[in-house]
């Protein structure tokens, strides 16, 4: 019995590593967008194609991933997902060595396709590997490691991708800086490739214990029933808007902070203890793009802290009310950034992550409770709606090109206001399913 428990614990640790890995890989998109903008001399709209290539995979692969899981079960699905992720990393290595932007986009799409499949298979496994009494604790712990990965990604990505890179008007990137940034991309995805390969070997060797603990996989019957549910469709729209707003802000954050109208000519950020330490001043007045890229980690750390605080608040406050408050505050913060601007706008923008924290799980649960479609179908539709992270950043990039980074936050502000309306409507809608649980993690 002790040996079985110890094997289940080891298997759970490996699954949790998957959560960390996809959080880390996803948040690397933020410094990568800023990096490719400089490396390949792109407009903001063109640079946001990196986010589009990554998040469009959710729209393309979510339902096929559910069908795959139903057909071949957990371990083969995870191994296929890891294989796709390795292939994506290899394409990224080729892109960095050949300096071809279209290969970057292809590599990101393949990598994200693997992550999409991985999420569909790994979430129920995290809850099932061990004593059923502690399933929620295990899933929460896995989510915490996912959030920790999203915090570390921008720090390492900015260090590797953005050294010496500048994108302000009139600046020119030298061939040496360009080569170093491409080498940083090469190094990051080489190490990620090695980690994923090691995980694939581990899951193959431990396939028996993981298979024994894996939960039964739902049938694909009724997979599209959510399309007939008004609340499932509303929830999908809400997820689309939320992920689109969160990704748009994250991918534009370094560029915003580096802008001369915010922190570009100011050293105020270095006077904030934790923030200044993370950014690591290079001694040159103002905030460089690399320093701004490291500051983006605080955006994701805020989401991690906010999730812990929000979990406590949800024990005392009804979910739709808390969502209404958080979305309204996030909208007000976006309005402040583009209406007021200045040095303080940088601190306000970073703080938006605190209020993003509970939005995904609360929207997910509110929708599952009210959807007349099956839980699996509703979950699949909501995961597909993560494609908002592909489309809305393109819009924000286009607005940035015309008006500037700060003004472009009017787009996520509008998204948060619509999410506030969703929360109000949810409070008035009847609950169909009392035991709704979040079947997927963002």
Characterization of this structure:
By secondary structure, this protein is mostly helical. Helix content is 76%, strand content 0%. The chain has 18 helices and no strands. Helix 10 runs antiparallel to helix 15, helix 10 (230-258) packs across helix 17 (388-403) and helix 11 (273-279) crosses helix 12 (289-314). The radius of gyration is 21 Å and the shape is globular. The mean pLDDT is 88.
Outline of the structure:
The chain has helices at 2-27, 29-39, 44-47, 49-72, 74-98, 101-128, 135-161, 175-205, 207-213, 230-258, 273-279, 289-314, 319-339, 343-356, 359-370, 375-384, 388-403, 410-428. With 442 residues, it is mainly α.
State the helix count.
18
- Total beta strand runs: 0
Please tell me how large the radius of gyration is. 21 Å
Task: Please outline the major beta sheet.
Answer: none
| N to C succession of SSEs | HHHHHHHHHHHHHHHHHH
Which range best describes the helical content: under 10%, 10-25%, 25-40%, 40-55%, 55-70% or over 70%?
Answer: over 70%
Instruction: Give start-end ranges of low-pLDDT stretches.
Output: none
Strand composition percent:
under 5%
* Average pLDDT: 88
* Overall geometry: globular
SSE-based structural type: mainly alpha
The N- to C-terminal Cα distance equals 34 Å
Write out key terms for the chains shown:
442 residues; mainly alpha; 18 helices; 76% helix
């Amino acid at each position: 019995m002790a040996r079985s428990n110890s094997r289940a614990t080891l298997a759970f640790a490996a699954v949790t590593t998957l959560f960390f890995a996809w959080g880390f890989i996803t948040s690397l998109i933020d410094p990568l967008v800023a990096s490719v903008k400089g490396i390949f001399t792109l407009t903001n709209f063109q640079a946001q194609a990196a986010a589009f290539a990554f998040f469009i995979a959710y729209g393309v692969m979510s339902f096929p991933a559910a069908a795959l899981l139903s057909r071949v079960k957990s371990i083969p699905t995870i191994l296929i997902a890891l294989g796709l992720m390795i292939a994506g990393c290899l394409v990224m290595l080729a892109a960095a060595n050949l300096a071809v932007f279209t290969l970057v986009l292809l590599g990101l799409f393949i990598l994200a396709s693997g992550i999409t499949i991985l999420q569909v298979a790994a979430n129920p496994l995290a809850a099932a590997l061990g004593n059923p009494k502690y399933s929620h604790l295990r899933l929460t712990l896995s989510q915490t490691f996912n959030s920790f990965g999203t915090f570390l990604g921008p720090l390492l990505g900015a260090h590797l991708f953005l050294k010496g890179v500048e994108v302000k008007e009139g600046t020119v990137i030298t061939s040496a800086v360009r080569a170093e940034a491409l080498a940083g991309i090469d190094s990051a995805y080489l190490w990620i490739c090695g980690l994923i390969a090691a995980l694939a070997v581990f899951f193959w060797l431990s396939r028996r214990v993981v298979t024994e603990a894996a939960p039964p996989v739902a049938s694909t019957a009724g997979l599209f029933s959510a399309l007939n549910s008004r609340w499932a469709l509303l929830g999908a729209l809400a997820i689309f808007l939320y992920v689109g707003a969160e990704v748009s802000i994250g991918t534009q954050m370094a560029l915003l902070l580096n802008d001369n109208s915010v922190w570009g000519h100011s050293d105020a950020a270095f006077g904030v203890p934790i923030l200044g330490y993370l950014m690591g001043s290079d001694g040159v007045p103002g905030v460089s793009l690399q320093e701004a890229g490291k500051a983006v980690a605080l955006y994701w750390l805020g989401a991690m802290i906010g999730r812990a605080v929000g979990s406590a608040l949800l024990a005392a406050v009804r979910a739709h009310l808390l969502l209404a408050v958080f979305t309204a505050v996030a909208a007000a913060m976006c309005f402040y950034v583009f209406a007021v601007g200045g040095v303080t706008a940088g601190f306000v923008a970073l703080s938006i992550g605190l209020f993003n924290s509970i939005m995904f799980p609360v929207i997910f649960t509110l929708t599952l409770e009210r959807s007349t479609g099956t839980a699996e179908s509703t979950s699949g539709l909501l995961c597909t709606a993560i494609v908002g992270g592909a489309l809305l950043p393109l819009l924000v990039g286009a607005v940035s090109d015309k008006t500037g980074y700060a003004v472009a936050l009017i787009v996520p502000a509008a998204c948060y206001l619509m999410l506030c309306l969703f929360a109000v409507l949810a409070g008035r809608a009847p609950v169909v399913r009392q035991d709704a649980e979040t079947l997927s993690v963002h």
